[in-house]
Amino acid sequence: MATTILMHMKESPGIPHAHLRNAIDYILDVKHDGAKTDYGTFVGGNSGTDHREILNNFLDTKDLFGKRDGRQGYHFVVSFAPGETDKDTAFSVVKAFCEEYLGDAYDYVFALHTDKGHLHGHIIFNSVNRLDGYKYHYKKGDWERYIQPVTDRVCMEYGLKPLTFEEKRVGLSYAEWQQKNKGVVNKQDILKADIDYAIQQSETMEQYISTMKQMGYEMKQHYSYKEKRSFITYSMNEGDGKVFRRRDRRLGSGYRFDEIVQRVKTKDGIRTYEDILEQLNRKAEPYLRSTMLKGSRTFYRLYQAVNYYRLPNPFVVPSAQVRKDMVRLDKLLEDCRYLKEHQLPDAAALKQKRQFLQEKMEELKSERKTYYRIKDMMRPEDGELLEEYRALARQLMSVEQTHSDRFEEIEDRMEEIKSILPHDYLEAEDRVAAINQELKRIKKENGVIDHLLGTETAELRPDIILKK
């Protein structure tokens, strides 16, 4: 399934809504009595089914808020690959998207065209929000942040593949987001897993307490006269002055003091640690099998995190660090991904990469200076226009935050300035912005390398032997 970029309909000279009217007539196939929509079978929306009624409802909303001018509406096109789905399912997907993304906020109409080899749906919606009167404003990145998660979710509900874009996808799709977060554990999950593991290793409560202490926990027993029962508070020093604490009463069934006493005797209950290890192992498997990573200390940290309860002696590893890595596995996997993608097996390679990035930064700074010199050639009036362009760009960001309709006026003026200024000036402005963005990215990458070097140059305890 593929979705085109969103298109907007500008105000037309003479009749402001002429383009909007033509677009509605087109998707309803008024010229051929709706032949493309199986004569109205595959038409829907919240503004009626007759093209005149729909347009009037759109215009009524504009009149209600005094906004007949400016952009008139927006147009989505959703295309399905030949044979990917049937008419009813395609229609349901488009309908579900409109209901979730537009809801009651905008007047809209949609139609499925069935006249081509591939089914494709058209969606037209009003530029004016009928609830608050503000105008819809699509900006770069909205696909990934807001629209794509909705369309992906709808597709999966109907058994279709998540949508793909012709443009480069920056954000995660809903399916990728769901997969990325599958297997994430939190500190309480790990505490429960540690308790389950300690129970399996102990024959008495004394052994249980000793095992938990070996795993890095401090335990304090209290008696509640109100509840007439004992409870335990678990705490672990996480470093940097941070301490994780949790009372057993908050851990759920099977983890109160009296329940643990019984479980130590019978070995009954769940084995949370096995589930956690399997979840973490599934996410980390591609990197655990990487021969390039196996000589790095980052790999050792990953191995410890996903195999902690399988180690011959888990008590000798740095328990607080291992638990941090279990909770922040995605960050550790990002470290491994960086090492693997850039083929950086050791500290020496990391230092070489940092040197390369430093040289790249110097080149970019030198290039940026050449563009700065262009300012010396500018006429005063050109400089004023360029300054106005910058100011408009800043205003555009602020109107996005204040939800104003002035963005149309601002964007039109920016386009006008682009047509007046010499191309070199605007190119210099854009290139400087791109260089600054690249310098920012390199600075961030240097931070990643410094972080990795901190791990790769750390001492490894000689008594930790990793076998698999």
Characterization of the model:
- There is one protein chain.
- Strands 1, 2, 3, 4, 5 and 6 form a six-stranded antiparallel β-sheet that branches. The chain has a three-stranded antiparallel β-sheet with strand order 7-8-9, with helices on one face.
- Strand 8 and strand 9 (242-247) form a beta hairpin.
- It is extended.
- The protein contains 17 helices and nine strands.
- Helices cover 53% and strands 11% of the residues.
Write the layout of secondary structure elements.
Layout (H helix, E strand, L loop, with lengths): L1 E2 L3 E3 L8 H10 L15 E3 L5 H14 L8 E7 L7 H15 L6 E6 L6 E7 L15 H16 L16 H8 L5 H15 L3 H10 L3 E7 L4 E11 L2 E6 L9 H10 L5 H17 L8 H11 L11 H9 L1 H13 L5 H26 L1 H4 L2 H23 L4 H14 L2 H34 L12
Helix pairs in contact: 3-4, 6-7, 6-9, 9-10, 9-12, 10-11, 10-12, 11-12, 13-17, 15-16
Task: Please give the oligomerization state of what you see.
Answer: single chain
Radius of gyration over all CA atoms, rounded: 31 Å
- What are the low-pLDDT stretches, counting only 5+ consecutive residues below 50? 165-181, 460-468
Per DSSP, the total helix count is 17
Give a short overview.
The protein has helices spanning 18-27, 51-64, 87-101, 142-157, 174-181, 187-201, 205-214, 257-266, 272-288, 297-307, 319-327, 329-341, 347-372, 374-377, 380-402, 407-420, 423-456, and strands spanning 2-3, 7-9, 43-45, 73-79, 108-113, 120-126, 218-224, 229-239, 242-247. With 468 residues, it is an alpha+beta fold.
